[in-house]
From TrEMBL:
Principal place of residence: membrane
Bilayer topology term: Multi-pass membrane protein
Organism: Shewanella canadensis
Family: Belongs to the FNT transporter (TC 1.A.16) family.
Domain CBS: 338-395, 405-491
Name of the protein in its database record: Formate transporter FocA
Residues passing through the membrane, by range: 47-67, 87-113, 125-150, 170-192, 204-224, 267-289
Length: 491
């Protein structure tokens, strides 16, 4: 793990390193976390992954050209479908192997709309990812030209590439823009669907049809064009006269394949269309719907597995009424009980220095921050001792806090309800109310509410980082909540 890996609110990992069952997030909530992670990622890490993504998409276009070459006698639609399925390899590689692709990165508009990232940070992220994609595409272009792949199948591979590239420059400006909109709606919806699964094979299958549709329908993808059109330009300028003669065409037929035509007739409108299609129509579209039905920030909603609990399963008092929580507790917010100046730790500290700092401060765990006070993760004494144990407590262990910290951490916001946080900390609702999503009781034996409650303890963190707009503003602990409850009851 590197210190640049950011916190995700998806998996449940306690400060003591105990891994628990992951909560069920809505696709929108995952998209929000996904978008923020793109923006706050370290610059060179983001740029490097973007270069990989540009190369992945270029490889996918090589696959597309190969499977569609020499298919003039086959049904047009079937050829396009096969080509589209082949091209889906590119997005699969980006999602499964890791990459920063501009057309999916525009989904960070969701995090921007939630005010988790600034406009400046958003635009800088888009720019570095775009430039990284360009670098990856051009590196792959250099390799393909050096391999003289355009001579495959008697030069028909190169002719196919020329025709594809030239076709892309014959769209009108507005037509290219709209084709870009349609393309990135499908790309971002494909990525959005992958949030529904953590299985790599399932993610790959989910991506196939959206990509196959946009490719077979002729929609325009700006990053794919960063490879495809320069490939056509390169073949037109660098291929020998014999290449064109053998195919019965002339280089002059492709004289409109120029860098100027590419940038102004295709790249600019398609890029803008991709931003509108993915960032506005998909990202902001879902944000508007989500924003309209609930408050802007409800991080605690991310922590709960939603269960339908029949009323008769709740505990009732002797009078037959449901118990009521004191209003004093109901009104409490996280900001009322959090420590606004918690102990924090640097990711660059050694395992020894980190352990000593925690011990000196009499703290079992601490938040790990970057130089902008953004939360990178959580580290505990247990995390550090586990590493020393694995090395038989030898001196000279080179690990830093950043290598050992938990990077997947549940967070809350200052405005969250303390009563809901108490429930999250102490109750496993799936054990207390053993019902499925349809409200059907699960299990073969009946147990009273009191019996279920005894064994419904939750394996959740005892300390939660409090994050506002991506910046740590405090830590709330179970001890602070318990003390407040004692004060309320005058214990």
């Amino acid at each position: 793990m590197t210190s640049q890996q950011k916190v995700s609110a998806i998996p449940l990992v306690t400060p003591n390193g105990v891994e628990n069952k992951k909560p069920m997030l809505s696709l929108y909530q995952q998209a929000e976390t996904y978008g923020q992670s793109k923006v706050v990622k370290a610059v060179w890490q983001s740029f490097g992954l973007a270069a990989f993504a540009g190369a992945f998409i270029a490889l996918a276009f090589v696959f597309y050209i190969t499977v569609t070459t020499g298919s003039s006698t086959s049904p047009w639609g079937m050829v396009r479908l096969v080509g589209g399925l082949a091209f889906s390899l590119g997005l699969m590689l980006v999602v499964i192997c890791g990459g920063e692709l501009f057309t999916s990165t525009v989904l960070s508009s969701v995090a921007w709309a939630q005010k988790q990232v600034s406009t400046r940070e958003l635009l800088k992220c888009w720019l570095r990812v775009y430039l990284g994609n360009l670098l990856g595409a051009l590196l792959m272009l250099t390799l393909i030209m050096a391999a003289r792949m355009y001579e495959l199948d008697g030069g028909r591979w190169g002719l196919n590439a020329l025709n594809i590239a030239q076709h892309k420059l014959h769209h009108g400006w507005f037509q290219a823009f709209v084709l870009g909109v349609l393309c990135n709606m499908l790309v971002c919806l494909g990525v959005w669907m992958t949030f529904a699964s953590r299985d790599a094979l399932t993610k790959a299958i989910l991506l196939m049809l959206p990509v196959a549709m946009f490719v077979s329908s002729g929609f325009e993808h700006s990053i794919a064009n960063l490879f495809m059109v320069p490939l056509g330009i390169s073949i037109q300028h660098l291929a020998s006269p014999e290449f064109f003669t053998s195919l019965g065409v002339t280089a002059a037929q492709y004289s409109d394949l120029t860098l100027k035509h590419f940038i102004f007739n295709n790249l600019i409108p398609v890029t803008l269309g991709n931003i509108v299609g993915g960032g506005a129509f998909v990202g902001l579209g879902y944000w508007l719907i989500e924003h309209a039905v609930k408050p802007e920030q409800q991080p605690l909603a991310k922590c709960f597995t939603q269960l339908t609990s029949p009323t008769h399963l709740y505990s009732v008092s002797s009078s037959g009424e449901l118990p009521k929580m004191p209003k004093t507790i109901q009104k409490l917010r996280v900001q009322d009980l959090m420590d606004p100046k918690p102990m924090t730790i640097s990711p660059e500290l050694s395992v020894y220095a980190g352990l000593k700092l925690l011990t000196d401060e009499n703290s079992r765990s601490a938040a790990v921050l970057d130089d902008k006070q953004r939360l990178l993760g959580f580290v505990s004494q247990q995390d550090l001792l586990r590493r020393l144990w694995s090395e038989e407590f030898a001196r000279g262990v080179s690990d830093k806090v950043s290598d050992l910290m938990q990077t997947e951490v549940l967070t809350v916001s200052p405005q969250d309800s303390v009563s809901e946080l108490i429930e999250l900390m102490v109750v496993d609702r799936s054990k207390l109310f053993p019902v499925n999503d349809s409200g059907i009781l699960m299990g073969t034996t009946y147990k009273s509410y009191e019996e279920r409650l005894r064994f419904a303890s939750a394996s959740k963190p005892s300390a939660f980082p409090v994050v506002d707009k991506g910046v740590l503003c405090g830590v709330i602990t179970r001890e602070a909540i318990a003390q407040k409850v004692c004060d309320i009851y005058k214990v």
